[in-house]
Recover the amino acids of this structure.
């Protein structure tokens, strides 16, 4: 199985074709479940400037892992457990009272962050954090720099 699922662009359109011929606009968890039950086929429409291309989603496990529908520890670097998290406001933060603040995170549980969206989902569930997933993030060794809504942070 490949590491990367190629159809995760925000401009990607998913369509389902049900066994009775009905066509639905879709994607997501509900579509995944319908495909698993054999009720429909799932397709990705790759948008182009002059034309678009249609691709059948034939690796459902890869689709589910890429969108976080099932946890994929190998791809995300994150075990499915309660993380040991320590954090502090970044010394480079210029607006510590802004809506979002840069923080430096360390994971004491041995996990590593390879997928920011997966980490954001886990931190929302575990700590109530609102992690920005549309901005840059980075790491230096075992320290990760991310942006989090300041009001969602709790020690």
């Amino acid at each position: 199985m490949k590491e990367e699922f190629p159809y995760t662009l925000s401009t990607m359109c998913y369509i389902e074709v049900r066994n009775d011929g009905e066509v639905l606009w879709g994607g997501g968890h509900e579509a995944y479940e319908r495909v698993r039950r054999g009720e429909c086929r799932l397709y990705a429409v790759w948008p182009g400037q002059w034309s678009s291309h249609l691709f059948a989603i034939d690796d459902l496990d890869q689709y589910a892992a890429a969108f976080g529908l099932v946890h994929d520890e190998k791809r995300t670097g994150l075990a499915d457990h309660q993380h040991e998290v320590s954090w502090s406001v970044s010394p480079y933060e210029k607006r510590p009272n802004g809506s979002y603040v840069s923080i430096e995170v360390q994971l004491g549980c041995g996990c590593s962050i390879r997928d920011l969206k997966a980490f954001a989902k886990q931190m929302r569930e575990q700590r109530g954090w609102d992690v920005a997933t549309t901005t840059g993030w980075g790491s230096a060794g075992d320290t990760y720099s991310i942006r989090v809504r300041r009001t969602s942070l709790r020690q």
Observations:
- The two ends are 39 Å apart (CA to CA).
